[in-house]
Predict the structure.
Amino acid sequence: MCAYAPQNDDRQRVRDASDIVAVVGEHLSLKAKGREYVGLCPFHDDRNPSMCVVPTKQIFHCFVCGAGGDVFSFIQKYHSMDFREALEFLAERANIELTKFNPSSAPGDQPYSGVGRREIINANEFAAGYFQAILKHPEHGAIARGLIERRGISPEMVERFGIGASADRWDGLSMMIDNKKLDRNAFAAAGLLKQRDTGGEYDALRNRLIFPIHDQIGRVIAFGGRKINEEDEPKYLNSPETAVFNKSTTLFGIHHAARAIKQRRTAVIVEGYTDVIACHQAGVEHVVGTLGTALTSGHATILRRLCDTVVLLFDGDEAGQRAADRAIEVLFRETIDIKIAALAGYTDAKDPDELLKREGGAAIFEQAIHGAEDLLKWRFDRLRRSLADAGPARMTQAIEDELTRLNDLGIANLSPIRRRLVVRQIANAAGIEEAVVINALRAGRRAPRRESLDEREHTDLESGWKPGARELLLGCLLCDDQLWLSMSGEERDLISAGAFRSGMSRRVAQATLDAIEDGAGSGLHAVLGVLSETDARDGMETSPRATALYQIVSRETEGNDERLHRMFRECVNAAALLELKRGHPDENEMSDAARLRAFIEQQRKVRDRFGKGGKATLHGE
């Protein structure tokens, strides 16, 4: 779309052509209620419809979180756009051409000196066109076209998903950028150019089949590259995370699948780019893919706006089992049903791509999806199979341990109605009475010969450990893995492993950072997964410390998002003060006046660096 000046007549024309009920209804499900429409608010964890859309006033309002405004406000907030991007989006939707203008002379529209979101998206869009041109090139794209043909990807799907290829050279895109006299900084910020150790830059994606990754409205925000030469490594290479791309909140194919997901009220998640494309090619369009991560709360937040149920279709290997396990935490955090499906039992095909190339494959695929099991039932069935030869004592112990694990993952934080429904699911899956489940969860029972989490937490406190600001900050991240995304680089440095005095807390911090780097997020279940491996390797038992921090913050905030976010900000500010104090002279050698001046200066520095999100009322590590 052309550049424009956001003039009042443009705004009015676009507003008049953008009925708010239609626009909001394209993003989430609305139901008529009298003269208004209601739906689940997408801007907080809404369990009962609290967003109201008023067609007579062309506004929306949430009675819980207070979000509201006109159609521009909704698009800005929903898609994290500035006003200019929202106006472009709605104008394109309404097929309205905006007023052209000269950027250098536009009043109040000064050139942006840094690289912003729009510049990165523009760089990605240019690169996508370049990669598509390479794929069509008689010489440079020949091998890639052969690979596409062997994989059975139709020309229609190549066009629909914008598949391209990168040349077998290190400077193909780089030279094109220079030829067009484009800003190299934007391409570097997008992760398309990398710095050489000897100086200069080179193409990040070389000799690869390129899959553009789009956001929900179809903008190219990143790329995935599959190797063409089988000797190259790694097999798949994704763009790094940028200002517009975060893999824990991005689903491959979402912009093509959203309509079908909304119609069927179900989303199917598969593992790879080609699996998604094969499904769409076979006419099964309510399918998306994660980008090398397990299902996250960020993914669930996007999907629950469109559907009620998510079906995870995974390989039956160990990685697939771990992905399903991690989904438990998402099940308890988000108001969405999660089911597990596997192709084994229906076919010997190893993945959807292979199955859907066979005659009748689409029908078998649909059978597997319809046969998906509830996540909790699947989990307990798997437990039962593993204990097929166990006696009553071992079976009881295993079920008690499983209930404790589920309790640790946040059943207590569910709304009363949802908690009761989950308890009923657990009782049916485990084959025991609901009252037994309720009592076990309430008591947080473990096996009699094992020390309880509460006892371990108490022992920690008696031995001199008390959670300080940094540790409580960790606890906040364990409770909500979206908080990490809101932290600046300086704030993230506050929880580097080296910042903790306690060895146990250092291990929890490192496990949290490792889980985030792996794309699993900072939630408790993901961190416990990392700790289970490192503790087994090192002969340690650190999981109780992570669980204790999670429980302390959960009790303090009572499952309320606003309280959690307020506590998180207070912890950030308090930890920042402690960081400043580390380089401060011994307070005992300072006068009262000097201490006061130092404290005021520290407060000023914290406000300058981290904002005014809360008072530094927490102390300790």
In short: The domain at 8-105 is CATH 3.90.580.10 (DNA Primase; Chain A).
